[in-house]
Design the sequence.
DNA sequence: TTGTAGGCGTTATCAT
DNA sequence: ATGATAACGCCTACAA
């Protein structure tokens, strides 16, 4: 059904009112082609008068372009997805780029049920380009993205790398970020460093593991697999992982955690156990979200430029719409932008100088 | 330019391939009208074979419906909008409703520069319905929303009330939420209760002020305007507002703050001043975001059902697309859904029993 | 500088 | 149960 109670002024009416042809109205509205200033203002006045706004729908249809940049998000019912710092920042960055380029931002929720399938967003012409967030390295996902590439749809994977493929990606050097984090812990005198990581289907988790290993090797420490823990990035999972650290704690003098939220869960558990702060392992977390500053002790954390990532990804992607040359090479030499992370040191990884609040 | 390197299968090709008319293809794809099972499967096979997906663009054009629910967000460059708990939760709620109803979610960023103007989203047919978030009671905004109503565009204002108008709204009873918060402080023995509020152009700020006043009156306390502070909901503004509380602190034994982030800023300042926790005023904040649990001391906070608000708003709004009767009355008896907030008590407002961590 | 007219891929109505 | 066809509102190549 028609969802509105009003009538929309059409180009035809404007043309009649202004006493020109419809084509002229189009030219004026789009500012193309030469035209007499008089005609122009006549048309604009008519449009103003009639409240005419060109239909984006019809325009898209005629141009065969939706004008939308799609962003695929993991759909997890009730998961309060946006609450996660990661997605929030990224979307803000994408939003700001999209806006400047005159596109609209269409949010697309990936379903956990149905098999992954991204191409139909293009086939249905819902989007002109697609940014894929929260991607995981799983067979279905790889396949779905491969299809996008084969069909040469403009897309970009963010914060995820698929080894062996060459997809256009904007990513962060999590290997180096993690290496720095763990090296810092070693420099602080730690020799038994635990690692609470996220699921390895995220390449950023795998990358962090590499960085961790690298730092240990460089510090002549050996990797003890009983020091490896896995969570799902939620606070709760950090809280639960801490349980498993219990018996190692006297030994474990350092801890690297893959995001702030899990680290906060760990801290909660430590506090519950009434471990004195001086006895906490030295901790470095990841993301450097707002929360890192306000925990007790404040968390050292690896800052990830999510906002910039989103902005860069969107800009790159939309750029190819205006640059035929870029489009030609987009898939042959896929973009692989690699941003740097930066370790921010706070009390959680320093000496026993925690403010005892 | 054409942004893709592939060709899209059209209905015509499917029709030819299947040896039927285009109309039949449409019927099959939309599952309308009677049809022989044989024809149906023939068409479906052809579609499958050719990789045909009906063009959402063309469909929207023909149906004169975009299939999009628009969500207006305040645009603040670099403001990391989504990081705010408020918007994050709301969008998650809207997203989940929209998805179920088969709509798409279009994000629209309000500009701070240009005068407010929402109607053109409808005139340009970018959206079939509109949810307005982060609205403020300012002349331009009122005017813009009035126009929506006059033209009978389906829209909904969320978490904001315009006194004297009757716009369709989904809101929270912030008067009652605040009254509870402050009454709780009074019950805890506080008699000099400060209030750090947000800008009064947000009706929820004004409502909180009413609740504060109400509670004071009920507790036979008088309102001292030197106990009123204003911030802009950011942590920094809380941090700065705390400065102004300095000299009142010995007296001020209670503090009500309009959101968690500002409260966190206040706590930071207190900690910087090295005020012992036992001497903090008893604090109740607002929103009950994730952060409230992890501060030291954990913040008592008024829980606001943002997620539900978003979901309810979107559901209500999309419902009117399927219900002519509802649409008819939508503007005559505008929805005014009023959800309840709930006080969550934590250590920050209890006796001197803070865990000294 | 402006007008004419064909086409875009559906939906929906009317025949058959 | 299916086919033919007129809209839908705009863009754009071409004609004038």
Sequence:
């Amino acid at each position: 059904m028609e969802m509105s109670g009003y009538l929309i002024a059409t180009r035809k009416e404007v043309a009649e009112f202004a006493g020109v042809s419809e084509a002229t109205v189009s030219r004026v509205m789009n500012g193309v082609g030469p035209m007499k200033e008089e005609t122009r203002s006549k048309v604009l006045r008519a449009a103003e008068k009639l409240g005419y706004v060109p239909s984006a729908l019809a325009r898209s249809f005629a141009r065969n372009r939706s004008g939308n940049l799609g962003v695929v998000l993991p759909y997890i019912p009730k998961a309060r997805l946006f609450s996660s710092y990661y997605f929030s920042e990224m979307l803000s960055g994408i939003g700001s780029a999209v806006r400047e380029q005159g596109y609209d931002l269409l949010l697309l929720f990936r379903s956990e049920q149905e098999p992954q399938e991204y191409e139909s967003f293009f086939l249905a012409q819902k989007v002109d380009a697609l940014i894929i967030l929260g991607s995981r390295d799983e067979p279905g996902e790889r396949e779905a993205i491969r299809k996008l590439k084969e069909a040469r749809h403009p897309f970009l994977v963010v914060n995820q790398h698929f080894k062996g493929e060459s997809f256009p990606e904007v990513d962060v050097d999590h290997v180096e970020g993690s290496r720095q984090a763990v090296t810092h812990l070693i420099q602080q005198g730690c020799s038994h460093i635990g690692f609470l990581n996220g699921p390895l289907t995220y390449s950023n988790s795998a990358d962090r593991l590499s960085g961790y290993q690298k730092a240990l090797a460089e510090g002549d420490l050996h990797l003890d697999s009983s020091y490896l823990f896995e969570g799902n990035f939620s606070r709760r999972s950090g809280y639960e992982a801490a349980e498993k650290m219990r018996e190692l704690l006297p030994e474990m003098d350092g801890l690297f955690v893959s995001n702030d939220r899990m680290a906060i869960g760990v801290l909660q558990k430590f506090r519950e156990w009434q471990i004195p702060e001086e006895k906490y392992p030295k901790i470095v977390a990841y993301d450097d979200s707002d929360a890192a500053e306000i925990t007790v002790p404040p968390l050292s954390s690896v800052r990830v430029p999510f906002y910039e990532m989103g902005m860069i990804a969107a800009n790159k992607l939309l750029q190819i719409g205006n640059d035929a040359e870029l489009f030609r090479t987009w898939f042959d030499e896929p973009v692989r932008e690699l941003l740097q992370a930066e370790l921010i040191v706070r009390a959680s990884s320093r000496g026993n100088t925690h403010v005892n609040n």
